[in-house]
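Re: the 64-residue chain
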Amino acid sequence: MRIKSDYPIEKIYITENGCAYNDAPNQENIIDDSKRIKYHSSHLKELKMQSMMEFHAMVILLGR
């Protein structure tokens, strides 16, 4: 993987990640976050796969 060859470091910390959708609360004041949840879920799954395959525990996942 290119990042591994370009940056010979031991750990990678991802400090920010996000997505913006044109969403607003419905009549019950609830926001349907299904698109945002799907976005983050797919990225975390891919990060986990790459971590196991390429980085050999270089990536540290923090948070909930």
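The longest helix spans residues 34-55.
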